[in-house]
Amino acid sequence: MSDPVLSLTGIEKVYNAGKPNEIRVLRGANLELKAGEIVALVAPSGAGKSTLLHIAGLLDTADSGTVMIGGKDMTRRSDRRRTMARREDVGFVYQFHHLLPEFTALENVMLPQLANGASRGEAKARAVDLLSRVGVAERAAHRPADMSGGEQQRVAFCRALANAPRLMLADEPTGNLDPTTADQVFNTLMSLARETGLSAVIATHNLELAGRMDRQVKLDEGVLVPA
Ligand code: ADP
Ligand code: MG
Q1: I need a labelling partner for 94 at 20 to 30 A (CA). Which of 3, 39, 47, 55 fits?
Q2: Residue 204 in contact with ligand 1 by CB distance below 6 A
Q3: Who's near 215: CB < 8 A, 6+ residues apart?
Q4: Is any ligand 1 atom within 6 A of the Cβ of residue 128?
Q5: Which of 36, 33, 75, 72 is nearest to 55 (CA)?
Q6: How confident is the model over 124-177, as pLDDT tens digits?
């Protein structure tokens, strides 16, 4: 048995601790994600989906609990080592693309690879390959502002996968798109994930899309339960 790609144990998160507006968002959330598994995270707005994904993706820290990625405990690592693990092992996709506006699509997919030590030639070849797999190769020289919302998200997927992470975390990745585009972009994401054997947690409000993933979990009073 290989280690789970992601293992969250007893994750707790409180905002504004000790203040009148204290909010206990996560109250002992547990999740185990197997290799190649794609899990939908469904919950109403404000339930803590983004908080959970940010903690899982090492973008934020929990108040207690353990985050393991690929069997390695990330909880007590230094910021520098968490950053390295995030760069290598995790691809994060936001609801709004967060591409760098002054760079082209190609450059946006090359940059994480260059930051991770790839040569320009390697980074470019992989970026071109990824962009063509999601059907936006002809947009490679465009800046984000000159692409449609669906194209921007496809490029954002490529950027997230640029360093071939084992884990993708996507926070309502089709939430900004019209239903038809959302459906197409979601299909692209699923086939890309399946082709590459990626494991993923994908937050969505869309129950139809959630139903097409391997299983569904929801946040209920700060813990994860089967949906
Ligand atoms: P979701 O993604 O499910 O909509 P979030 O994780 O964004 O939920 O937020 C969960 C709750 O925590 C919300 O009530 C939100 O207002 C609150 N929250 C999120 N981030 C912060 C923060 N940095 N400081 C204080 N409260 C926050
Ligand atoms: Mg959110």
Answers
A1: 3
A2: no
A3: 37, 39, 40, 226
A4: no
A5: 75
A6: 999 999 999 999 999 999 999 999 999 999 999 999 999 999 999 999 999 989
